[in-house]
Specification:
Blueprint lengths: L1 H17 L9 E2 L3 E11 L2 E12 L11 E9 L5 E10 L2 E4 L5 E5 L2 E8 L7 E5 L7
Parallel strand pairs: 2-9
Antiparallel strand pairs: 1-6, 2-3, 3-4, 4-5, 6-7, 7-8, 8-9
């Protein structure tokens, strides 16, 4: 009887040993508009502070168009509270991914052009990178 119990425990333990944690995945979001306030945003190597990133993905109807695109508008928030647009771009054939952790990615699978991630220490603080030519790795 002891042998059967030990064998059963060994089998159960083998399930936990071979179980791997898979990376978080998300499906592309369509017809969504998101605003994120980034403490630091890197646009093609230039760093900006206190920015507002507005992302808007279309919802293709597959009648007139089947292409997905994401409109991106980045504004600097001046101390007076005014917004000054510094970057405005339409990324064609790209998708908007929103993860449960708060991370946002814009791009094609395995090639992200925009990457916005929340701070691990402060709640509500985001950091972003926009690199449309080389991608964000």
């Amino acid at each position: 009887m002891k042998k059967y119990v030990l064998l059963l425990l060994a089998i159960i333990q083998s399930f936990f040993v071979f179980a791997q944690s898979e990376p978080e995945t998300a499906k592309p979001s369509r017809g969504v508009e998101i605003q994120r306030r980034c403490a630091i945003l890197d646009i093609e190597g230039e760093k900006y502070e206190n920015t507002l990133v507005e992302l808007k993905s279309n919802d293709p109807d597959f009648f007139f168009t089947d292409k997905s695109h994401v409109n991106v508008k980045v504004s600097i928030i001046l101390p007076s509270g005014e917004k000054k647009v510094i970057y405005k771009k339409k990324f064609k054939d790209t998708y908007l991914y929103i993860f449960r952790s708060g991370q946002i990615q814009v791009g094609k699978p395995n090639f992200d052009k925009i990457f916005i991630t929340p701070s691990s220490t402060e709640k509500g603080i985001y950091y972003g990178t926009i690199n449309e030519k080389e991608g964000v790795y």
